[in-house]
Amino acid sequence: MLLPLAFPAYANIQDASGPPINVIESDFNSERTASFISWRTDNGLDYTAVGSSKGSIKIFSFHPTNTPILDTRARPTVTPPSEHNPPTAPSPSPSQSRRHSRSLQSPSSLSFNQALINVSARARVVSGVSHEQVEAPKNYVDFEDEPGRLKDILRSNSKHKRTLADTILPSFDRGVVIEQSPASASPMLLPTLPNTPSGASSTSKNKDDSRSLLSATNSPTFPPGSLSALPSPRPLSPFDGSPSRGTVKVSIILDPCGPGHVVSAMRYLETVDLLVVLQESGNLSAFDMRDSTCVAKCECTTTRSYQDQFWKWETIRIVPTGDKTYIILACASPSQPPFAETFGLAEEPRDSKARLNMFELSVGDSYGVHPTRFERLASDVWQVDGPATGVELLMNDTDGSFQLVYINSTNYFVTRRLTIIPAYEIRARGRSFTSSPAHSQEDNRSLAIPNPFKVFGSKSVESIALLGQNHNSGTEQENISATIATIDLGRVQLEEEESRGIVISSPEFLLEGITACYAGLNERIIGLAWSNTDITGFIAGEQERSLTTFAVPFRSRGKIQGVHFMDDEAFVVLGDAISHYCLRRVDADSNTATTFSGTSIITQAIQTVTTYGGPSLMLSWSRTSPHDVFALRQLRSGQKEILVHTINSGQDVSTKQQRRSLWRAQSPSGSTIPGGATLMSVLPVELNFVLLGYSDGHIRQTSLPCLLQRKYHAQPAPLSPFSPISGDNVLFDKISDMSLPSSILNMHLVRNDRTGERYILGGADDGGIAIWALESLKLQARFTPFIVPLTRIAQVLQSNENAGPLRGSLLCVSGDGTIAVVSMEGFEMLYLIPGASSPIARIHAGGDDNNRALLIYADGSARVWDVESGEFLRATNEEKAKELVDAGGWINISLDKSELTSISISTLSGSSGPVSLCTLLLNLDRFLKYTSVNVKSSGIALSSSSAPSNATLSQLRAVLSVLLTPGLSPDIDEICENRLGTTPSQSTVGFASALATTIYHHDNPIHTWSKSAKVSAGRVLAIVLVLKTLSLAEELSHDCQTVITFYSTSLAHVVGVSYQAPDVAYLATQWFDSSNDVRQAAKALFDAGIVRLSDEESIALVDAWQHHLPCLQPSIEKESAKSSLALFICGYMAAEKYSLLSTSSLIDISKSIALYLHDESSAHRGLAIDLCARGFQIWQHYIDAMAMLRALYTLATSTRKETISARNIGPQARLAVLQIASGSTPLFMTTLTLDILNPKTLDQRKAVMQLVAFMIRKRPLILYPNLPRLMEAVVKSLDPNSTASRDAVLDSATEIIGHVVKTFPTVDFHMATQRLAVGTSEGAFIMYDLKTATQLYVLEGHKRRPAACTFSPDGRRLVTVSLEEGVVLVWKVGSSFTSFFNPGAPPRQGHGGSLPFKTLNFNVGDEANMTITGTLEWVKFEWPAERTVRLHIRESVLTFST
């Protein structure tokens, strides 16, 4: 379990007089912004996500301001007003939602963009009240009547002289002249928004493809002259009147990050609250915006990027195909590799090809059964002849088909029908979708009709590119299309290309982007293409296969940053000028046209609103807030600012929109801090030894507690001119004696394998290398061998004889591949090997004379060098180099394998800025294992500062200080600070996974527990684990338990309705994947979680998981993680709340437990054992309970080495047996005796008897009522007629009899005569002869429960006592002449009948009521003489003569 801990206080050090530096703001100011998007959630909060060039993302949240923010979820329905009453608008329906469906809208659902219409004060008061009778809205569309209605609407004469169009047309931007016909009034002049009130669903698919409200499917049923004026948008609640406040909510550090991993594109999926992120390196990720954690990740390519061509993945297109499924198209352009600038590679002419890949994103459920995941649909060889920015993916709502549309290299608009083959069909065909290089030479042009069952990945890239090309010659293109009917790319099947016509006619038009959508009844495609300064529009018909273009007037001083369709009749252009447009179709007479067809029909883009936003780094428009355009800009001071441009309804075209600042950085960038230094590198050596490298060239030593708590260290003199950190009195433990002239970018720990001394090797940003002694931080050596900084190192040990002159040296590799060889003895620079045009991938040393160095590069090339002379011998490729190495005589030198540092803490892989540098990953399992050993070994001497555990306690307290959330309970805060020793910390904790690291920035403890169930579970688990380790110190045990109880059970009450209870599925996962301490804590929290669930929630959880139980899965899936997790959740839920579950569920759970329990190879037998102990009384009704007990007996007594695993289940099985024996004693004893008497094998009988001995030691009271049955079975197992059986169990039987006699006073054994006397609860005593393994006779004298018995030393007397009767009976049990003639009868007692030889009464008062437990401990016999016995009853002693 990894715990990211951020310590921003150490990111910068400065003079005390300087202003405090906010590391988050400083990082944000200095990093280069690569992508920027915005969205609005249902609760009215606005968010922006800013992606950087180094692979990090910052999420900002904003509250609405006093200015009314337009409720983008609702648009008023237009109603026909009365002639005498002012038009009004109805209030929106309470059922408004941003969830869109694809259903066709009814005519009554027509809405318009209220933001772009001037509204009178009167119109705001009265809202659409009409005295005219109107037709009830229909819930269907009459397709036959719609064209006629549309024609009537567009061409009818209005009753009013001033129409809606008349209100807008005079306000058009200068330079646009519209001649209006008196008979035509087009309501299409306003952009309509993709929002509808209740009863009207939008066709929005999280992309610009929604349809016009004036298309044939959305025609209004009223004349245009009756359109009412629209009201102002209502303010959002519940934040009306609250001040504007923007905060940095989260920092996300992607893995990998750093140069070459630019966040190139982001898209927000509003219906599922996911953020999809694409990096230039081809990593595709999905983040749950509830807690900003990464939930899915994949790679766009599986081939090596450096060979042949490097691809920069830069755009994504997303189309929803269901409630929780999305098709994602990722596009890449040819580019230089990220190291091109470092290596000085010339910029090559930009190729027009684009590489594509397609994925299906399946959003997981809330129970964790089906996690969110990406599935690759296409192979790696999919290319098209056109730029990546000119590719779009559309979905036809009518038939669900997909269209791949793009502008090719010759500026033609190309469409291509795309089909996604269902996965089950692929499995049936037995196909593979991974590109196979072995078949890449196949020429697909020779296939007249390609095999539809053959993977397209087997074709070469060149062939694919040829198939994807669009040629100027229509004949040549038709020939290729006729030859290749369909092309398969994994699950993606492409039909032939269709070239519609030229879109871009100007050679100066350099395409920067394209957007397109279906219009009307999906019978046409409307698109927009733009360059940096110009926009052109086009319309492609589905039936007539034609294409027409239209001009879009746009003037701006800056470049166009994006164009977005609001619907198929309106769009917005983002640049320095933000312009809204509507599309209008007119005929030759300038009348509104009703169709797109016809030679005289032209489309006009009418500019409705144009505002000047000023220069910005990035602009963002979102469907969730269509009235707002968010902007990111950088001020002259270097500080960045986020602002929003809001378009109000009262504006005309020439009026500037309202603009307000949402957030502005207050701190300067990290590189402009006056008189200070910035953290540049971190090297955690140990928990109390962390090295920090700064931009002033110094290395500073500190510790984990100091980093997290900023403790004061008393020093005789300042160690640095920058003693205070951000104004606080904090000093470092140690500082390097000399500073380098430049920043320390990286540090590595190395070790001299001859002397054992350890050193620090650091690289500076001027290409220098420096070496310091680890303990003293004194500078040992310094070189400047490189032009670019050091990036990687490799150490060659002295023992590597084949390394030749490289033995005992350090190989320092710079960013351009240059290698500096430094000797560990004396730190001299020995050799310098020049770099190449690509980074080094592998290094080999050796060769014929052990004097060669073989360097293999990332681009597949290789070079051989003579190390001593520095002579370049030859160049080859990777394949030839591999053959050379395989021939022998070479050793592999591992890069980045330096001296092992701390195993408990580590840095993030790669660096994306100060936030990632100031974050350490704490391996909680290893940390707690280390600290718990130290706390246990130190005893309770905690008050002394010299105690061995003092440093360990400081580490625990420091981590606990970061995890706790003070402010929830004053009492708990007082306990933590005054008794446990925690202090408030400025450090923060995040959430880490193998996919990404999320760092939360908040100061409210309520927010910590309101993010998501997963984050709450991770944090409370970490708190409980640290507190449990701290409680090992006896002085702190009680207080730790108090705090554990609070965080485990009381948070829901303290936090309130926003509290996110810990996710039980996440806790269950931790039970499987962690150490024993983590398992115990996770199990305790899981138990508390399922108890807290309501009955409905419990049933829903089991219903979600029960279909994945092991007994219901095929053999290959029975041991899967999902199956075992399903059994964990359903099993413990059934044990706790079995009455809620159906009989079928209980049967499946019971069978699954038995399946794991009986499977010797199962890795989950421990889970089955624990569930057996937890709910055996439930499972025994549905499965063979005896078989389950026998399996537990075997596991509890197994000593075979092959059955002992890392998680030894023997003790666990024995504990389960004890619990079952306590709860189901009759069944337990029946099974036990049957297995002793009738075992399947001798080993089984021996194992069961060992179990009996264990039960006698641990749970004697369980066996006491069944002791006669048990002893009878043991005696019969010693049958002398079965010699092999007797010999096998003799030792175990002897051990059992010894334990029984020692533990139970009612059983006694006489060694000389081999007689065994066993008392029963009815008062009788049974005499056995162990020589013959037979029962001799029964002595019946007591009427109440006996308490003890004993043989006389000569074995001729048996004395029994019953406290309840207050009597001692003496029996003659020696052999006699009469017993030979009367076998089975007791010996004669000296008088007639069956009375005992002597009856001795006594009275001990209340001791007669002694419990069974008391008799086992306090009743004993003692023989001082052969015929004298003493009876000890607690402290009383009675002496009798026998």
How would the blueprint of this fold be written?
Elements (H helix, E strand, L loop, with lengths): L1 E5 L5 E2 L9 H8 L2 E8 L5 E7 L3 E7 L58 H5 L20 H10 L8 H5 L77 E9 L8 E7 L4 E6 L3 E6 L4 E7 L10 E11 L4 E11 L4 H4 L9 E10 L10 E4 L6 E3 L5 E5 L6 E6 L4 E9 L2 H7 L31 H8 L5 H10 L2 E4 L2 E11 L10 E7 L4 E7 L4 E7 L5 E5 L10 E6 L2 E5 L2 E10 L15 E11 L5 E5 L2 E10 L5 E7 L11 E7 L12 E10 L2 E6 L4 E4 L1 H6 L24 E2 L8 E8 L6 E7 L4 E5 L5 E5 L6 E7 L12 E6 L4 E5 L5 E5 L6 E7 L5 E6 L3 E6 L5 E6 H9 L3 E4 L11 E3 L6 H4 L1 E5 H14 L12 H14 L6 H10 L8 E5 L3 E5 L4 H4 L4 H18 L6 H13 L1 H5 L8 H10 L2 H17 L2 H11 L15 H17 L5 H16 L6 H15 L5 H13 L12 H14 L1 H13 ...
Antiparallel strand pairs: 1-51, 1-52, 2-33, 3-4, 4-5, 5-6, 6-53, 7-8, 8-9, 9-10, 11-12, 12-13, 13-14, 13-15, 16-17, 17-18, 18-20, 19-20, 21-22, 22-23, 23-24, 25-26, 26-27, 27-28, 29-30, 30-31, 31-32, 33-34, 34-35, 35-36, 37-38, 38-39, 39-40, 41-42, 42-43, 43-44, 45-46, 45-49, 46-47, 47-48, ...
